[in-house]
Amino acid sequence: MYNYRICYCFRLRYRPASNEPSDGLKEVYKKYAGADGAMGLEQLQQFMSEVQGEADAVAAAQTVLERSKEFRLLKRKGISLDAFFHYLSSNENSPLLPGLHQDMTAPLSHYFIFTGHNSYLTGNQLTSDCSDQPIRKALLRGVRGIELDVWPSSNHDDINVLHGRTLTTPVKLIDCLRTIREYAFASSPYPLIITLEDHLNTTLRAKLTSMMNEIFGDLLYVPNTEHIETFPSPEDLKMKILVSTKPPTEYLEEPKMPRDKDTEAQGGAEDEAWGEEILHQKPEVFEHKQSEHYQDEEDHDDIVERTHEAADYRHLISIPARKKIGGLTDTLKTDTNQVGRLSLSEQVFEKATIHHGNEIIRFTKNNLLRIYPRGTRFASSNYNPMHGWMYGAQMVAFNMQGYARSLWVMQGMFRANGGYGYVKKPDFLLDTEEDHIFDPKAELPVKKILKVKVFMGDGWRFDYSKTHFDRYSPPDFYTRVNLLRTLHILTM
């Protein structure tokens, strides 16, 4: 033990971090090592089969021996304790299955998608700079959903990207598009979805269409028909960029929306909303409505002009955003002739799950549901993503700035399946038969108790018990998220 003085009065004792194997690992090694103190091929195969559960223990053991030889950790009769520890703490012993291992031929709506919110902001939502660099960083992390808010420039002859009606400084749209073109598939070959918040007039829409066609070229996915009954699969859409926004005709039918006066307080720190366990967090319910972005007041001349928009802009939209019709029940009714995307703020979504949980799960079987942070998250904080995932929401949009716990969970989730930004939904979220629909709020009997021990290189040991699995809920789905979250926290 070491100690140091604080304020001349107190001494703090601490044990320094160590790269030595923990006592538990030493016991495991001693159990399987031979009499000569080394773990040979036969002993390693036994360990791989009995402890690691490897289907092909022979190949796994041989790989460990070869890797140990490369690092000069191989003894004449087998691997040493240091080599054994090196393997267990390496990426080759990841808790996730290596590489891409899920079926990628199902419709796009059958996958959770790594999605960003206000992807161009460098910091907070009110005064930070807009730049193409956060977009680049997000794409390099495997994000597959990028959001751009497009507005006319000050002289109305160019297009800027910025958070409207705030003090954020703009960035030119063409810079963002060029960055997207360069890095779109740097980390994943699967489709990239660009969500546009469109505040442009007809002339600038035509300019936007021309920019995208010129910069993206054949990378743009353009459907053969305006009405898509089923989304193509991620495999079919490899190396393609999809644009999602409201078709121009939707604007003609919408009433004027005055700017909301959001009186909700920011609330406490983000950690206070999580409670002791992420899966058991009860969602906050906010009684007021809030639009994602305040809409422009449109005069009559502009509306008349929009009726003559060129078809090119409409053809650019491969995932149409659905118009909200009447109440939420009507909005969530599935259209068998056309699929699309619906966006809800986090508080509207949380309130909707109280009375419309079944409708949401039915809707997300064939359509995309995007959830975005409430407007009062000025510091670019985030919410609990598990609530959205448990109801089948594919695009749980997150602010990618910062390092808070919710973002760790998001990043941990999408390290699965090779880190390509697409994770297949569990089958129970795709079963929409009336008597089989998954109910996240249901209290069901425990079917299995899992205990996970995580041994860290500095001597940490973490025991995690998950005690609530039901007949619809396979352990790997929730365990994967929580285990990765734990690993993130312990390694900070």
From TrEMBL:
Residues 343-429 form the PI-PLC Y-box domain. Transmembrane segments: none annotated. It comes from the Eukaryota. The keyword Hydrolase applies. Its EC number is 3.1.4.11. Its main location: membrane. It catalyses: a 1,2-diacyl-sn-glycero-3-phospho-(1D-myo-inositol-4,5-bisphosphate) + H2O = 1D-myo-inositol 1,4,5-trisphosphate + a 1,2-diacyl-sn-glycerol + H(+). Keywords: Hydrolase, Lipid degradation, Lipid metabolism. One of its GO terms (cellular component) is plasma membrane. GO terms for biological process: lipid catabolic process; phosphatidylinositol-mediated signaling; release of sequestered calcium ion into cytosol. It is found in: Cell membrane. It is a peripheral membrane protein. Pfam families: EF-hand_15, PI-PLC-X, PI-PLC-Y. It is an enzyme of class 3 (hydrolase). This is Phosphoinositide phospholipase C.
